[in-house]
Amino acid sequence: MGSSASPDDEAWLRYAIRLAQRAEAQGEVPVGAVVVKDGRCIAEGWNAPIAQHDPTAHAEIIALRQAGLAVQNYRLTDATLYVTLEPCVMCMGAISHARIKRLVFGAFDPKRGAVCHALSLTDAAFLNHRVEWQGGVLEETCGELLREFFRARR
Q1: What domain count does the chain have?
Q2: Residue 71 near residue 39, CB atoms below 8 Å
Q3: Annotation: binding site for Zn(2+)
Q4: Which class for 111: exposed (0-12), middle (13-18), buried (19 or more C-beta within 10 A)?
Q5: Pairing assessment for the beta strands 32-37 and 79-85 based on DSSP bridges
Q6: Where in the numbering of this chain does the CMP/dCMP-type deaminase domain appear (predicted)?
């Protein structure tokens, strides 16, 4: 869905990649996320389920929680979420509930992705909010970060 990525999209996704590297440095799966509203970062997050002893501590959830606090509203209309990996079902549910306007992600996740792979929740009839999305932005860079992480653990 959507057109090609803009230079701004790539710049924000590069920011998310740097956050993913923080997760990796902490032994977490390297995924990073940034919430942008009105051209500025209002929140960021990186995977931390191990460190936080919390299965919901995905990069997107952490960033959405921070963004809600930043704007004092759980609805993040007119915000864009940038994330280095196609979101899972839990994160897509949160993205929909938060009313994120636009989602931009890097690597596709054919096994667990809930945007356009394992599930297609962006157009699910039972959800009352439709998220515009763009996938595959800086896909090779984002994918390589994950491949190297898992290769090092085998």
Answers
A1: 1
A2: no
A3: 58, 88, 91
A4: exposed
A5: antiparallel
A6: 7-129
Position 109: which residue type?
D
**pTM for this model (two decimals):** 0.94
Is residue 83, in this structure, part of any structural domain at all?
yes
CATH number of the domain to which 137 belongs: 3.40.140.10
- Return d(Cα 31, Cα 20) in angstroms, integer: 4
At 70-121, the pLDDT tens digits run 999 999 999 999 999 999 999 999 999 999 999 999 999 999 999 998 888 8
Catalytic option among 60, 86, 139, 140: 60
User: Which residues are known binding-site members?
Assistant: 58, 88, 91
Residue 2 lies in a domain: no
- Flag whether 134 is in a domain: yes
pLDDT at 153 over 70: yes
